[in-house]
Write a structure and sequence with these properties.
Blueprint (H helix, E strand, L loop, with lengths): L6 H27 L4 H22 L13 H4 L5 H28 L1 H23 L6 H34 L7 H6 L2 H8 L18 H10 L9 H27 L14 H25 L10 H6 L4 H25 L1 H4 L6 H12 L7 H23 L7
Helix pairs in contact: 1-13, 1-15, 2-11, 2-13, 4-5, 4-10, 4-11, 5-6, 5-10, 5-15, 6-16, 11-13
Length: about 400
């Protein structure tokens, strides 16, 4: 199998993972803003997310000859390594729950703030666990100041969301266009879905009469999107974000245990799971949970979404190619993160949790987040981004080298 053995290669994989993991949320957000049901989108995403893991396992995991202490992917499938497999699958379960939660949080809190808060929680908890699981191969004097930067970013992210929500309320209160709960109840989601994906890739199609950042823009966008959020409780969206962050903070330590067996659960003589085998089982459990829950949500929708069916999902081809692309980006991003973590330490690999830098770029460029906001919101946004730049640089600088 292919093994990354130098710090430079590990950092290159982390940077690629950073771009992929920061881009796929923007793709799913684009579809939600066009009116496509999140259940339909997540089912498509789950399929290609698993296919990416299978591709990585059958290519990188099969390169070269199999060795007794480092078997190839197919060789390892027949070995007695179930304790490690269960750790890998547990990581896939919590990642799937976290991804599912963020899909709804993006609508309530915004792409940028959701990714920043959830990723920061992931680093504060997950990186600390990985540091001790990895036998402290990362330099603590560099690593933990980076963790501190992420912790500050959590606070700044919450402040940005609160300030931006206040800005939007002020815009809506002074708008000549009335927006009521009746308007929300009467919005035709299926009609919006038909209109939302037939014209152009611009996510603001259908709101061309209003400028981004205005009250009219917010109202027209609300009538078009699949999840209705205006007038919702401020802390409801933040609660979803914190739940997702807690889930994300556990998947990397679980994967670490699966590949390095720090708790000595394997029988004597059984080799550790290679990163590709662990990622394969990790992705299978992620797939099963994602598919199962979203089929349930088709018939038992949440947050006021319309009821759908599996037959309706199969017929919904509007934007499907983008959902499939998002699954590939996430799958390869996770795979590259784990490959880099196996070489340089999973605590350093958590630097990819600076993915909100990429998500914030897409949020501002594609969706007009924070346009026409107050100076206070802009100042908090800049401070938050600065903290993330510092955090990712520091975490990568703490990279160590795992003893084979």
């Amino acid at each position: 199998m292919y093994v990354v053995e130098d710090k430079g290669g590990a950092i290159a994989l982390m940077l690629a993972a950073l771009f992929f993991l920061g881009t796929w949320p923007a793709v799913l957000t684009l579809l939600e803003r066009r009116g496509r049901l999140p259940q339909h989108t997540y089912l498509d995403y789950s399929i290609t997310n698993l296919l990416a893991a299978v591709f990585i396992a059958l290519t990188f995991g099969q390169i070269g000859d199999s060795k007794p202490d480092m078997p190839n992917f197919l060789t390892q499938l027949t070995q007695d390594n179930w304790p490690s497999i269960l750790f890998a699958m547990a990581g896939g379960v919590v990642l799937s729950l976290g991804n599912l939660a963020t899909q709804y949080a993006w609508a309530f809190v915004g792409l940028s703030v959701t990714e920043i808060i959830s990723s920061s929680i992931t680093v504060v908890i997950g990186t600390t666990l990985n540091y001790f699981l990895d036998d402290r191969i990362n330099r603590a004097e560099i690593l933990f100041p980076g963790v501190g930067c992420f912790l500050v970013a959590v606070c700044l992210g919450s402040a940005v969301h609160s300030s931006n929500a206040a800005d939007n309320e002020k815009k809506l209160s002074g708008s000549s266009t009335n927006y009521t709960k009746t308007t929300r109840a009467n919005s035709d989601v299926s009609k919006d879905m038909e209109k939302g994906v037939t014209n152009t890739s611009d996510p603001t199609v259908g709101v061309e009469n209003a400028k981004a950042g205005t009250a009219e823009y917010l109202i027209q966008l609300e009538n078009r999107r699949s999840i209705k959020v205006l007038g919702s409780n401020l802390f409801f969206g933040l609660g979803i974000v914190f739940f997702s962050g807690l889930c994300f903070s556990l998947f990397s330590p679980a994967f670490n245990l699966a590949t390095n067996d720090q708790w000595h659960t394997l029988k004597k003589g059984v080799p550790h799971l290679v990163v590709y085998t662990a990622f394969f089982y990790f992705s299978i459990s992620c797939f099963v949970v994602g598919i199962g829950l979203n089929i349930w949500f088709l018939y038992n929708p949440v947050l006021g979404l319309p009821r759908s069916s599996f037959a309706a999902y199969l017929k919904d081809w509007k934007g499907r190619q983008w959902a499939l692309l998002a699954g590939l980006l996430c799958g390869f991003g996770n795979g590259f993160q784990f490959m880099g973590g196996q070489a340089a330490g999973y605590a350093a690999a958590d630097a990819v949790q600076a993915l909100p830098l990429v998500s914030t770029f897409w949020g501002i460029l594609l969706f007009g987040e924070y346009r026409k906001s107050s100076r206070r919101t802009y100042a908090l946004l800049v401070s938050m981004i600065f903290m993330f730049i510092a955090a990712v640089a520091v975490l990568m600088a703490s990279s160590g080298h795992r003893k084979q």
